[in-house]
Amino acid sequence: MPQFKDIGVEIQLGQSISHPCWLILIINPSLLLAGTYKPIALFQADKESVQQIKHRLRNILDKIGVDRRLKEFKLSRYDLTCNLYYKHRADVQDRIDIFKKSFPIPHYSVIKFGQYSNSDEQFKGANKHSWTIENKSKSCAFSVYDKSYELEKRHDIKIDEHILRLELRFGRSKITKLTKAKDWESQLIELGSQVENQQHKFLHRLHMMHFDPVSLPELLDRINASKYREKTKKKLRRIAKKANGCVSLAAVQKDCRIKKFEFIKLLGKFEEMETGCISFKS
Question: Considering the entire predicted model, what is its pTM?
Answer without folding.
Answer: 0.91
